[in-house]
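assembly run, all chains below
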Amino acid sequence: MSSTTVESTPSPRGAETPAQRSGDGSSSGPGPSFLRVLNSEFIKFRTLLSTLILLGSTVVVMVGFGALSAWGTGQFSQAAAQDPEAGARFAAQGGDLAVSVPTSGIAFAQLILGSLGVLLMSSEFTTGMARSTFAAVPKRTPAFAAKLVVVVLTSFVITAASTLVAGFVSVPILDNYGLGLDLGSSQSVKLLVVNSIYVAAVAAIGMALGTLIRNSAGGIMSLVGLFFVAPIAFQLIPGDFFVEARKYLPGNTVEPLTAVEHLPDTLEAWQAGLVLGAWVVVPVLLAGILLKKRDV
Amino acid sequence: MIEARGLTKVYGDKTAVAGVNFTVEAGRVTGFLGPNGAGKSTTMRMIMGLDRPTSGSVTVNGSPLAGHAAPLRDVGALLDAKAVHTSRSAYNHLLAMAATHSIPKKRVHEVIEMTGLAEVAKKKVGGFSLGMGQRLGIAAALLGNPQTVILDEPVNGLDPEGVVWVRNLVKYLASEGRTVFLSSHLMSEMAVTADHLIVIGRGKIIADAPIQEIITGQGQGRTRVRTDQPDRLMQLLAGTGVSVEARERELLEVTGLDPRQIATAALENHVMIYELTPLQASLEEAYMELTKDEVEYHSLITTGAVPVEAGGN
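ok done. output:
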């Protein structure tokens, strides 16, 4: 190359020239192993401001609802102490309302983190990022699995952490009203773990919907339909079928899983676990298979 | 080396790519030229494994991209300047891409420097101009220092400095022995960049030859002659395989004779000629000639071709 062109010719080479390689396409250097793809997906996850905002909102909502609920429960118990009618109602609730105070914001956490699950995948398609992602990982499944791991783990950790913080904030408030909350009790731990797993499951379902629908609004609407509209609709439609079917909605599996004793019109705990598992596995598998088959 | 064999892509009832065969060799810049909708991008997406061929196959160095152990280190592609999440910064985008193959951060900084993105690397890609997006796409394509580089319309939206830069870059990459496959619908750009040309129209390969051959192969050479005795010269030159057209009062265009033959005829007959210019068909003309029947979207209004009343409806 003559010296006159050197200035305007960018050098794309790193340490080695590809001309030195054998021409058979065998590459020199590591390829996309699962851990590397996982690392990449985690970088993608934490470098989006919108993701961080959604995670922050989850914590704020969970802690805020925990505190509000602690206050409300305290007021309720005070009323119960003075008014026999309210006292009867209080007793009917099982007496120990305090234990579910830290997870009282879970309905909102599932909506936010479920939407995050949708967005993380649908935005790949709406922005065109998917072309970069799947050109780097043309087998596609490792990238899908890595993203799923990131979504599920973060949703679990954020829900568990914000439940814990909500608990710490609620204890002194409840204490004010003479109500005790032991965050280390087996029921407290059970509520924290089951609800965190549940929210992680919702996020996985969200991601599967985002992969299948590839559209943010459509994915989130489907999620809302499944978790918020269907339970109400099933309740309004008369007929035994819908009473029965309602039990199998993913949103109605948490109650039997965390109940101290079996409640009427709900599944057994082991059934609920299986139903929730199926609600995750079926859409995720379908999404994974179709993602591999469809054009990006 | 990229090899397509019977490569076909059908979307619904529309055949985007119809059983094409071609080979893109290493060590030279191969241009992929065709009108809009001819199947260039679809073909490139199939090379990258993003679209599945309806039938046939396309391989890079002998195997489809999914079969490569380290795809990013073998094949780098700019398919779409906006194949990036708009809310992520250029640096983080490249970092995430690099992480899939354990490409060091040093290399990320290198490609950012190389593509002139250093000043905007920390900014969100959503605010990038088309030209900056192209530069980022090229940076991503070069990230793995790949043996094969595929660029779909790389000069779109680039400023003149950027156009020259891409031109030099692809030539340099080819000179290093890499396979460079470059698409464009701009004939003028191809004429100065590519060594070899594959012309596609309506999903079919129309031509696959060195660029010089495509230019010279289309129509014979013409010669422009100015003389003060055009009628006399026309009579002198007339013969089989020769056509002479009078363009202006003293200007002729001769096809079928080379300038020396024209000059000889004029000299022997004492006809003065005051201009004798060999005309080479431009790539543009060659391209129009090649693709005239294969253009997907004909412009309705062409000079003189459409009657005035058909203009509005």
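Chain A touches chain B through 52 residues (CB under 8 Å).

The longest helix of chain A spans residues 141-176.

not gonna interpret more than that til we talk
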